Amino acid sequence: MGLLDSFEKGLERAVNGAFAKTFRSGIQPVEIASALRREADIKAAVVSRDRIIAPNSYVVRLSADDLERMHGLGGALTEELHALMNAHAKAQGYSFSGPVSIVLEADEKVATGTVRVNSGTAEGRVSWQAVVDVDGRRHSITKARSVIGRGSDADITIADAGSSRKHVEILWDGERAMMRDLGSTNGTKVNGTKVREAPLPTDTTITIGRTDLVFRVVPVAADRPSGANR
């Protein structure tokens, strides 16, 4: 099953039940989803070997009649579009420089049954933030050296009896990161392998005792969005 098929099935659920309608003419919800996906693919930009940035701000331009039909679906359509765009980005390995925004607007220059999409992202150079996800909580790495362990004086404290008070440190220079074990009692694993130190590419799992920590490098929104017409 292709990705577009997944988009279509998701949107079919959005227009079922209370939202079920027959659009005898005009734009179809699945066509909006497809247009958004294409816009993301066209505008996605490779900023490094492991990072691809896609626009996070989308304006969907429709005829007045089509916009009225889409508004008849209420919030279900936009919620589904947001969910599907995030799923598409995850499948393609895209990152966003901020929360995804999708707005539907009327445009007298757009004919009934067609759709145009404008997109934009943060201006200027995208900045990146190192973070560590632990048990559903995200901790930002804001220093060149951050200590993780059981002790209350650690920069990131984990409640795991199998960890030492100062178990590991993460070194971050704003672009690259590495992990170094601080002579812990039970050792440290990186992606399942016990090591003393190791580089940390994004999405690396560090295991301390029974706790898995995931190191990631995530985009940070810069200035206001700037639009770019397709």
TrEMBL record:
Keywords: Phosphoprotein
Residues of the FHA domain: 146-195
The UniProt record lists the keyword Isomerase: no
A Pfam family this chain is assigned to: FHA
The protein's name: FHA domain-containing protein
Species of provenance: Microbacterium murale
